[in-house]
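dumping this here so i dont lose it
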């Protein structure tokens, strides 16, 4: 890359602002807020939505590249399917939300590896993806670690 960026300052700022919902959910848990269960559910829903969104990004990049294989499209639909699968334990009343948040956080944190493997993302976008994915992934994992304690109260 020649030092130019394809990302505007607004795109960067709004990307980082996307970490705020998880920060708010963690703050609600740490302060013993009466809506702690809603904070866990909201944190899961937000992380699942973002993970699904990443699949849409991969799909769009694959289409735009004009050189995508069937595998690229298969990988692009997996985040939505995984997010739904991680929601099922809650639906059936099994152990939730801690384990689902831990898995979801780890998958989000590692998702830029898919960007690299697909090879469609520009360098500046991939750097931002690492920052945001490690941030949201870590915050989601923290939410998962706090889940058991929050639900015991």
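and the seq i came up w/
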């Amino acid at each position: 890359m020649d030092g130019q960026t394809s990302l505007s300052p607004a795109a960067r700022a709004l990307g980082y602002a996307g970490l705020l919902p998880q920060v708010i959910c963690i703050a609600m848990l740490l302060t013993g807020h009466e809506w702690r269960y809603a904070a866990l559910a909201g944190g899961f829903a937000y992380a699942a939505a973002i993970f699904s969104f990443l699949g849409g990004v991969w799909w769009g990049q694959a289409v735009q590249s004009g050189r995508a294989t069937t595998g690229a499209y298969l990988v692009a639909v997996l985040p939505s399917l995984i997010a739904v699968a991680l929601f099922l334990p809650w639906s059936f009343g099994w152990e939730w939300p801690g384990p689902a948040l831990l898995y979801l956080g780890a998958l989000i944190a590692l998702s830029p590896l898919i960007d690299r493997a697909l090879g469609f993302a520009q360098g500046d976008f991939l750097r931002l993806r690492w920052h945001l994915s490690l941030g949201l992934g870590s915050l989601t994992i923290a939410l998962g670690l706090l889940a058991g304690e929050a639900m015991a109260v």
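The two ends are 51 Å apart (CA to CA).
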